[in-house]
Amino acid sequence: MIENFGLKSAGSAGTEIHLMTADDFAIWQAKASDAHQGWISAQNFHAKPGKSIYFAATDGRIDFAIGIFGNHAVWDGAALAASLPKGHWQFTAASDDLDAGLLESLALGWGLGQYQFHAYRSAPAPAVNYLTLPDGIHADRLIGQMGGIYLCRDLINQPPNHMTPAALQTTMETLAKTHDATLETHSGAALETEFPAINIVGRAAEIGPRLMDLRWGKKGPKITLIGKGITFDSGGLDLKPSKAMEMMKKDMGGAATVLGLAAALMASHVDIQLRVLVAAAENAVSDRSMRPLDIIDTRAGLKVEVGNTDAEGRLVLADAIAYALEDAPDFLIDFATLTGAARVALGTELPALFCNHDNTAAAILARQMWPKIRCGDCLYLMIMTGILMLAMRPCRAPACRDMAGRLRPRFSCAALPVKTPIGRILM
């Protein structure tokens, strides 16, 4: 299995990559042979993180390579894999700054750099670059992370006619079987009664909506992960423009993220009581579509007046979060491609974080820059205040109105209906 990630089992021999910082390389270069120094000069090599250079033996084969790492080990590992010829390599520590954590992060980057989605192509898959699993690292954690991220990417890359709510259910059934977890699926009449918002969002589609509830682990803190699983988002009756609709197969990215994370946690044998909720639906158009200004029920008992049928994500998440809170988790986090306003506000490379607990938000933000294992995946904390609920007061019924007007902060307003069952905001 690990070969799928570009890894070979520990102890297998590969060509050595001497890992060092740019400063270490300057010291090494000063002591290198004339032949090596001449080669470095001929290649115009400059030691920067993610860069590599390899040297030939007398028989013309590669003797060894030098790889440079810096403060973003995951990215550096991926860059090293891309810069070296396809073959079989192994890391060798040549720096006092290199510890097991950094080795693991570099290996993670290496493996993630080998990912390719080849499911619908007839040509053979391109060759991968192999790395011997480094000694002294947490192998279960590394392989679990790779497996989870590969799963997440595979799910998002699937076309929407294949990645349906039923396909998400099948994926969770496979995860449950693999890791000896339990899975309960709510669909049909039971979904309509118990999770009305999820049902209304997805009832127009050919394949019906559903809520999947996976549980694993018997000790440790109760951790609940919730994923938005809109397998395709046409925008409903308030149809998206064609270019905005084009990539809406990725609107189940939140569900893919929690399933990948759950797979990584279970494979790593973390001592937690894990619960994963995926609200899966397709926001389609038919005679059963929800309409603008419909007033719908939610599991939390809060009525919602629909301002725009393209604001479906907050509805399915509200039902899922209300359900999750009935079990009183110690920590709850949801992942969602909640609104295009996120991209307008922050661009494509900076995910937004909403949090109702300042200390938790601070700890998450601090973790992204943890010394020596900086992931490079930054977050930006957005506001989520009850004052904005005033803009969502009902016009026609005692309900929370889901408004998406251009004069309102659409990004923060998108999160507020999700916060409502958590913060118990009263209208």
Write the layout of secondary structure elements.
Blueprint: E1 7-8, E2 15-20, H1 22-31, H2 34-42, E3 52-56, E4 62-68, H3 73-83, E5 88-93, H4 100-112, E6 130-132, H5 139-157, H6 165-179, E7 182-187, H7 188-194, H8 196-202, E8 210-216, E9 222-233, H9 242-245, H10 253-267, E10 273-283, E11 295-296, E12 304-306, H11 313-325, E13 331-335, H12 341-346, E14 352-353, H13 358-367, E15 380-381, E16 400-402, H14 410-423
Parallel strand pairs: 1-6, 2-4, 2-5, 5-6, 9-10, 9-13, 12-16, 14-15
Antiparallel strand pairs: 3-4, 7-8, 8-10, 11-12
Helix pairs in contact: 3-4, 4-5, 5-10, 6-10, 7-8, 8-11, 11-14
Overall outline: elongated
Q: Report the order of strands and helices.
A: EEHHEEHEHEHHEHHEEHHEEEHEHEHEEH
The number of distinct β-strands equals 16
For the record, what is the CATH homologous superfamily label of the largest domain? Zn peptidases
In the CATH scheme, the class of the largest domain would be: Alpha Beta
Could you tell me how far the N terminus lies from the C terminus, measured between alpha carbons in angstroms?
53 Å
CATH architecture of the largest domain: 3-Layer(aba) Sandwich
The count of domains is 2
CATH fold topology of the largest domain: Aminopeptidase
Describe the strand arrangement of the main beta sheet, using strand numbers.
1-6-5-2-4-3
Number of helices: 14
Question: Biggest sheet, open or closed, and with what strands and sense?
Answer: 6 strands, mixed
**Backbone CA Rg:** 25 Å
Mean pLDDT: 90
Q: Spans with pLDDT under 50 lasting ≥5 residues? A: 403-407, 423-427
Give the proportion of residues in helices: 25-40%
